[in-house]
Amino acid sequence: MEEIAYILSTILLLAGVVGSIIPILPGPILTYLGALVLYWFTDLPFSSTDIWIMGGVTLVVFVGDYLLQVLGVKKLGGGKMAVRGTIVGTLIGMFFTPIGILVGAFLGAFLGARTETDDEGKALKIALGSMVGFLLGTVLKLTFALYMIYYLIDLIY
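RESULT FIELD:
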């Protein structure tokens, strides 16, 4: 049974890394599920406190990813249309990964901001804020996923 748990956990952890880059997959959640599988089905030295802390960090990373992009837009003067444009652009960009996600978020924010302002410079600034927020969220998720893998491998060996 433990072998199956290790295989399933590895699949979930790798999917978490992929989900850190591709927004349609909930990377932090998949990573946490990989840790939960090991907690429930192996004899690794986890405590319930460890798993609760991991869950809390997972929640912070998951929510923080979305907030960073929205904050990037809002901090530089974007409104609802710029935020919606960012989300739609990111979703459309997923069909053209990996660069399409970045370009989609940027173009979506830019077009959304242009509906709110006639100032192209301001719209460009808002779009850059969206891109920076997206990149920071990706780095946050990827760092979390890789650290969790490191931590779990350290427990195994």
